[in-house]
Amino acid sequence: MTELLQLIDIDNAQRREAAIALPHAFDKCTYALGSLRQAVYLCLTCGLDRGVCSACSIACHADHEQVELFPKRGFQCDCPTRAMAQPCSLVKGVDMPPNLSNVYGPNYRNVFCRCGEPYDAKTERETMVQCLACEDWFHESCLNLRKRVPPATGTTPPPPERALSEELDTPEAEAADGEPEDDLTSCASDPDLPHALLGRDDYDALICGACAHKMPEIQRYAGTPNLLLIVRPDSSLDWAILGARVHQPDAEAAATATEPPESPPATEPVASSSGSSTAMNEEPVTKHNGKRLASPVEDEPREVKRMRLDGDETCRVPIPSATVLAAFAETKPLEEDGTSQDRPLVQSVGDIFLVEGWRDDLCRCTKCKPFFDLHPYLLELEETYEPPSDPDLGLSIEELGLRALNGLPHTTAIEGARLFNVLRDDLTSFLRPFAQDGRLVGEADIRGFFDEKRDQLRSHIDSMRG
Q: Quick check: pTM over 0.70?
């Protein structure tokens, strides 16, 4: 009896896990819905740089090796098209041409981040963060938030297996809990890793350097309190945060205001951040007597550009500082002597980390509007398609059987119930000797029982036909 109860507990636990892993119905492909932002899966077994929707990932590719790419905008499922090696089981009898509107980035080749590595959930120890613009995924270390760490090995226990994004940290999971949906998702890093320059709770979203370099309209906001920039003066110093709010006790702040440094100290960006900080520093801060002080050169909030437009509208774009301009400047080749007068004053990849409330800082005047019309996700959260919930979610096999039985015609249901009772009685008679003798029932015993019943059924059908 104890083993039977354990089996029941295992079955219940597996049903709960299945309900968490597969909460949605997977009986309809999204191809007919056209291009939309939806969860995309890469099938490594098919070996093609194409993607499939969540329903097809289960119904058509469940026994294949897959990588979840998470939401991608403007995607139409490739499963029913001729681009895939096998036919779609949800859109039958249809041979659609390849989707020409889909944009297949490096993720569709199982290549991630600017380091170009494949993703392996079993060995990956770092957080990966999705860019809001290109929707590629980046390691924290490649974003200069922490030092690069080796993957998990046989001697290093790997973190719990997960996809690119931890289940509880996805927009879908947050929406299910009634919380506002986030712009970006990331998985939790191995807890044994060094502390990151920016924690996951310190920012809402990311615009990677490659995308930021293509968006001069966004560059102008970089290095402000809600659009942080990672920079360093040179390769000998650590990466630091430009635009972070710096915490200063009242007494220290007062001393800073009344006792300026005797000589101009060397400047460097903020090397750490605090969510409860009070003082704000737009430009690099300084070290003086071992303490972090606001820069005596540029300690005022960055001036906002007040460009007069038609009517009463005013453009609120910040004036980029020299540090920000240098961060996004193209590095010129070195001269023969190893120097270059045109090299940037600071080093930066250009990654911009967007802090909660960052959209409120963006100017929406008529001059800025055309840019945001091309990139509407910068102003508002995007709608992401979510498959309908599975009506059978959490139901046991018995409950599913009863539901199927109730959907049958009356006479068929009665005959089905009768045959079920016959099978139950036969199985009870088969198991009784095992219970009386105290013998264990093995897999071979159960298979033999059902093989015999299957043979009896075939003989019965053959006799009726004869």
A: no
